[in-house]
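Fill in residues.
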């Protein structure tokens, strides 16, 4: 005999697993999907699944939070956004986009840019500069500082 919550958790995890993984992939690639300017002002909120009778797959709608002005801009790019999202998933998975209005005075979401890794020449140059440092802890700290400076200069 098992508790109802235990059985429900197993069933729910199977059905919700794909939904949240998919939303995570959309969030991860959001800047590529909508562009740099709109990525900081908008964000994907929710996926709605609606299964029509007799259909094999449910219709999936992506809900995007945006101010009214940004929602208008995104509305004109709706087909392009759908194409980019479905390209990430490799199939026509998202069928529609719905816009949810948020206050225009809300602070935009600042996305951290992924650091560009050092290439082999930069790594060799940095290690060459630190070859005379004998203290391992100091060497590691200087190496981290040097990597941060080089990556900052790349931007």
């Amino acid at each position: 005999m098992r508790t109802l919550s235990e059985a429900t958790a197993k069933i729910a995890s199977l059905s919700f697993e794909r939904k949240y993984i998919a939303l995570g992939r959309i969030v991860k690639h959001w800047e590529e999907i909508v562009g740099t300017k709109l990525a900081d002002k908008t964000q994907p909120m929710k996926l709605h699944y609606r299964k029509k009778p007799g259909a094999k797959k449910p219709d999936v709608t992506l809900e995007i939070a945006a101010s009214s002005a940004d929602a208008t801009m995104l509305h004109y790019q709706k087909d392009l956004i759908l194409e980019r999202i479905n390209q990430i998933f490799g199939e026509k998975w998202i069928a529609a986009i719905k816009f949810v209005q948020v206050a225009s005075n809300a602070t935009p979401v600042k996305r951290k840019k992924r650091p560009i890794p050092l290439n082999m020449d930069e790594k060799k140059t940095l290690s060459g500069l630190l070859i005379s440092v004998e203290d391992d802890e100091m060497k590691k700290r200087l190496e981290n500082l040097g990597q941060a400076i080089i990556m900052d200069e790349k931007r």
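The chain has a mean pLDDT of 79.
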